[in-house]
Each structure stands twice: as C-alpha cells, then as structure tokens.
Design goal:
β1 and β2 form a beta hairpin. α1 packs parallel to α2 and α6 packs across α7. The longest helix is centred in the middle third of the chain and has 16 residues. The strands form two sheets. Strands 1, 2, 3, 4, 5 and 6 form a six-stranded mixed β-sheet that branches. Strands 8-9-7-10 form a four-stranded antiparallel β-sheet, with helices on one face. The chain folds into two domains: 158 residues, Ribosomal Protein S5, domain 2 (2-Layer Sandwich), CATH 3.30.230; 104 residues, Alpha-Beta Plaits (2-Layer Sandwich). By secondary structure, it is α+β, with helices and mostly antiparallel strands. The chain is globular.
Length: 280
C-alpha cells in the first residue's frame, strides 16, 4: 500500500477578502465577484483503501446523513466520473466551524477529489477536477484550483493573484448563519457594479451579504463593531458567521486577539501563498 494512504490531507479555510453580488441568473444562481485567500487553519482528512467499492465516512457529522455529506458525495462523484470500482474509508478531523463562511465543507470535498484522484490513480487533470467539483457547490472549484484568485461567475472563473503575506484575526460569533437564508433575503443587494481583477487592492470592496447577516443575527454586529476598533475595514467572510481583520504583522493581530471580549471565539491565522496540495 502506498505510504500516501497513511498521511493526513489538509483542507484549508478561505477568506473572501471582498464579495460583491453583481447579478442573478435566470436559474436563481447569484453572479458574484470575490477574492479568495487561503489561510493556514484547516480540517484534516485521512483515507484507507477498501476491498469493496463502498465510500464510508468513519467520522459522521451529527445530524448530517452520509448521503448528504460533501466528502461522501465528492468521492462518489469521482467514482462515477472515472468508472473506478475502488472504495475508501474517510476520516475527517473537523477544525473549521460549520456555517462559518470559511468554506470548510467545500474545502473538505475538494481535498477528497484531489487526494482520491491521486490515491486511486484515476488520472484526472486539475481542470477536469474543477469541472467535477462545481455541481458539489460554488466554492468547491476554487479549492481544487488551489490558487489565491479573483473569482467571477458563480465562483468558477478565476484570475490568479499574488497576494501579499498577511495575518488575520478571525472571529467566530456564537451563531450559525444558514447560507440559503442570506442569499434568499429580499433586501440583499444584487446589483453592485462589476470591477476588473486588475483594479483589486488590499482592503477594497465590501461584502454585500454582511448587512443582511448582521440584521438577522445581532451577535455579528456586536463582534464586528469590536473588530473595527482595531481595523476599520474588518468584514465578514462568505455568508458568515466568521469575521476577519487584516494585519500586516502577526504580532499586531495577536495583540488584538488578547483584547477580545470574554466568550468570543477567535484566532490568528496566516495567509497561504497557495493551497497546500497545489503541487499534487
């Protein structure tokens, strides 16, 4: 058995450095523009080969049926696309909060595609894996793509960016924000003017989902107000609930972390120049 079956496979978080909704397709999908930044906080996955063709999640998430779990769906998608009869048992060490806007479930699914394509030797290119990833969710392709980038469309068209190294203070208010609730809100702004990837600068833009989420979940507003005492352009990532502030120096992010209100979950994360599996 290949030693790669024994290793841990990271599934890193992402931040949306900005997120604009610029329109909506006839099928209801929102058209967006965003910058994806990978950070060094991650879930970890392990895999073991099976003699049958079953996909078994050894660490199920309470309340999530196996057939709905993105890791299982991703593995089955790869099986179906390649015709392989190989199976796998999957262990997931969940470190990223669910419903946090950090892309945890999407990142897990992407790592399953990348890892099992390698372990099963099914031979799909990264471009083919990106296409396979899109039906699993709008954020899954960027984790397969593996580069910090400016993204457009429904999140599947990428312009790679070299982003400066940075540290981020990430705050997770004690709320779970359902993505569908935010995107379905009647007062969501859906007509922000598009920008060009070349126009992006650190701190520019905003998150169109933030106002809707803050109105629906007051703890978000409270945490964001505190965070903006340190960094005025602190903002929400994805559809929430996590918030972040950008610091050029990690020591400054750590100093702000020490001042967080009692009971508020937060941590410091460093930017990544690319996904840890970019060279796979």
């Amino acid at each position: 058995m290949s030693p790669d079956w024994q290793r841990n496979w990271p599934a890193p978080a992402k931040l949306n450095l900005f997120l604009h909704i610029v329109g909506r397709r006839a099928d209801g999908y929102h058209l967006l523009q965003t910058v994806f930044q990978f950070i060094d906080r991650a879930d970890q996955l392990r895999f073991a080969p099976r003699l049958d063709s079953e996909i078994v999640l050894a660490t199920p998430i309470p309340g999530v049926p196996a057939d709905n779990d993105l890791t299982v769906r991703a593995a089955r998608q790869l099986q179906q696309a390649t015709g392989t009869r190989q199976g796998a048992t999957i262990w997931l060490d969940k470190q990223l909060p669910m419903g946090g806007g950090l892309g945890g479930g999407s990142s897990d699914a992407a790592t399953v595609l990348l890892a099992l394509n390698h372990l099963w030797q099914t031979g799909l290119s990264r471009q083919q894996l990106e296409e396979l990833a899109l039906p699993l969710g709008a954020d899954v392709p960027v984790f397969v793509h593996g580069r910090n980038c400016f993204a457009e469309g429904i999140g599947e068209r990428f312009t790679d960016l070299d982003l400066p190294a940075a540290s981020y203070l990430v705050v997770h208010p004690a709320v779970h924000v359902p993505t569908a609730l935010i995107f379905g809100a009647p007062d969501l702004v859906r007509d922000t003017l598009p920008v060009n990837a070349a126009q992006y600068t650190q701190g520019s833009g905003h998150n169109d989902l933030e106002a809707v989420a803050c109105r629906a979940f007051p703890p978000l507003t409270e945490a964001l107000n505190w965070l903006r005492e340190y960094v005025p352009d602190a903002r929400m990532t994805g559809s929430g609930a996590c918030l972040f502030a950008h610091f050029a120096r990690r020591i400054d992010a750590e100093a702000a972390l020490k001042q967080r209100p009692a009971g508020l979950t937060a941590w410091v994360a460093d930017s990544l120049p690319a996904h840890p599996l970019i060279d796979l």
